[in-house]
């Protein structure tokens, strides 16, 4: 079965559209391209990747599609449009003509209004994604769980994937707070009440310095139990993962977390689910 990294990024900060990127962070604030990732993909036998937007511009999406044209290992691109601008329907229609354009990801985690996704003026975008048979990557924090549930129920035909296990705040759990209970309840509802799938990614970046696999394992276990292997896709979140772990570290840890599953279930998590959801070959 095909082996896919369902979530990673390529960027060049000199483009100027990565507003979120800390200028003083030498790990992130540097160019990352296909040549940088190729050794890790080869080491782990990964056939290809899904490259996901990291800037709130259509221009960055076009930049990624250009990389995809030149890079066979890029199986698909998840881009961006402005949900607040109905004129961006034309961008969505144009981008959808590219064979490697899969869907979009609004940067909801960075929007102060937790109810932004429910606003009347952005609802057209969900309908447009359905009309064009494109995907919706849901990026948020535990505070967004209830609203993503509302969207998924409101639009049952929307092909939705919940990014990064909805970012449980593992660093808070490490500090003695309860980051599990509400998050776990929300994840269970998404799994039981919607047809969405979940990206098994970025857990390590929500941990604090000094983390161990024991800090992350309970959160991984809950996602696996809630969604099941055929609704989970592994992603590296490289190079963001490098804030806390290298590619090999997270891949190895994820393999350990699913080692109790059958070979078929593991194959779904490490490729099959992404191939089905995104329509990749």
From TrEMBL:
Signal peptide: none annotated. Coiled coil: none annotated. One of its GO terms (molecular function) is hydrolase activity. Residues 4-280 form the Amidohydrolase-related domain. InterPro entries: Amidohydro-rel (IPR006680), Metal_Hydrolase (IPR032466), Metallo-dep_Lactonases (IPR052350). Gene3D superfamilies: Metal-dependent hydrolases. Keywords: Hydrolase. Pfam families: Amidohydro_2 (PF04909). Belongs to the metallo-dependent hydrolases superfamily. This is Hydrolase. It comes from Litoreibacter roseus. The lineage of its organism: Bacteria, Pseudomonadati, Pseudomonadota, Alphaproteobacteria, Rhodobacterales.
């Amino acid at each position: 079965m095909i082996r896919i990294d369902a979530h990673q990024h390529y960027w060049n900060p000199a483009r100027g559209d990565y507003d979120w990127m800390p200028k003083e962070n030498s790990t992130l604030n540097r160019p990352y391209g296909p040549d940088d990732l190729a050794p890790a993909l080869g080491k782990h036998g990964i056939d290809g990747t899904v490259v996901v937007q990291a800037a709130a511009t259509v221009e960055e999406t076009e930049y990624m599609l250009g990389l995809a044209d030149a890079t066979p290992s890029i199986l698909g691109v998840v881009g961006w449009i402005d949900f607040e601008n109905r004129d961006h329907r034309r961008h969505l229609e144009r981008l959808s003509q590219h064979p490697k354009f899969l869907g979009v990801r609004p940067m909801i985690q960075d929007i102060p209004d937790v109810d932004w996704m429910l606003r009347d003026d952005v609802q057209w975008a969900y309908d447009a994604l359905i009309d064009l048979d494109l995907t919706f990557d849901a990026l948020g924090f535990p505070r967004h769980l209830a609203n993503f549930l509302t969207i998924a129920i409101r639009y049952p035909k929307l092909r939705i994937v919940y990014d990064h296990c909805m970012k449980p705040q593992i660093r808070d759990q490490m500090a003695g707070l309860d980051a599990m209970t509400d998050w776990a309840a929300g994840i269970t509802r998404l799994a039981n009440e919607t047809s969405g799938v979940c990206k098994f990614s970025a857990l390590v970046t929500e941990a604090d310095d000094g983390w161990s696999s024991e800090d992350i394992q309970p959160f991984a276990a809950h996602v696996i139990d809630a969604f099941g292997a055929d609704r989970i896709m592994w992603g590296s979140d490289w190079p963001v993962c490098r804030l806390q772990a290298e590619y090999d570290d997270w891949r190895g840890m994820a393999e350990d977390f699913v080692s109790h599953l059958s070979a078929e279930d593991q194959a779904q998590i490490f490729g099959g689910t992404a191939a089905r959801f995104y329509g990749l070959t």
